Amino acid sequence: MAISTRTFRPVLNAGVVYARLAGSAAPMESIGGIEVLELAIAEDTKKQTDYTRGGGGTRAQVKRVTGVTMSASLQDVNAANLARAVFGTATSVTGGTVSNETHTAYRGGIIPLANIVPTSVTVKIAADTVTMAGNYEVRPEGIYVLPDATGITDGDALIIGYTHTGHDLIEALTTTAPILEMYYAGVNEADSGSASTVEIFRVQLGAAKKVGLIDKDFGLLEIEGEVLSDPTKTGIGVSPFFRVRMQ
Questions:
Q1: Distance CA 201, CA 233 (A)
Q2: Largest Cα–Cα distance in the chain?
Q3: Which of 209, 205, 201, 208 is CA-nearest to residue 229?
């Protein structure tokens, strides 16, 4: 089949991006909503000046590619995306019951618990067997001891019991920069929904420059990475960096 000779092909793409650790046997999973995905090719130009005549000019030049970078704006700050962006590890904490988590009480302050969104909470002073009530608020982030709490003194050792439904846990900066295999599957809305795909064989992510916590608009997770050469892609005319298919 001959390459398409049609000239008219305006582009306004939408699509899905899949990823997994490069070389792994894991499934290629969607990373979720994505607002921007770009590849940028950087080059270095060597020029030889023409000194054989007045006025100069360029006698010859050589262009060498110095790198390919990937940048993306992720709309879904899910556990997998966040862990990759902060060089962290993500684990799932199973829900259950905690019977004797120990803390120190200070009136007017929050007590962060080991698990979020506690329910069926009981609070006891360690030196007493009486369950305290009415001196604290149960919040998603933990137990807030009221400023005018009675029966609780600053520095009291508390025993807290509760149940929880589980959560995702991300420990930041615990691993090296991940290398991902990425796969873009898009539709061109400006060209009758024609399909295209881009396979990016190996992308080594950089750490997220920032992780938004409070903002006035929807948050985005901005990531960047260096597209590395894939030594398994060999042969004349075979790119070791990325491959595009266009309908």
A1: 9
A2: 99
A3: 201
Query: What is the rounded distance in angstroms from the CA atom of residue 168 to the CA atom of residue 115?
Result: 10
CATH of the domain at 30: 2.30.110
Shared domain for 148 and 178, answered yes or no, is no
User: Tens of pLDDT along 21-65?
Assistant: 999 999 999 999 999 999 999 999 999 999 998 888 999 999 999
| Structural domain harbouring 96 | 92-167
Within a 10 A sphere around the Cβ of 71, how many other Cβ atoms?
A: 14
Amino acid found at 156:
D
185 with 75, same domain? yes
Q: How many domains does the chain have?
A: 2
Return all residues near 106 (Cβ < 8 A) that are at least 6 apart: 145, 154, 155
The model's pTM is 0.87
Residue 191, amino acid: D
CA distance 12 to 101: 54
| Alpha carbon distance 170, 90 (integer Å) | 4
Strand ranges for 140-207 from DSSP E: 142-145, 157-171, 179-188, 194-205
Q: 142-145 and 136-139 as β-strands: parallel, antiparallel, unpaired?
A: antiparallel
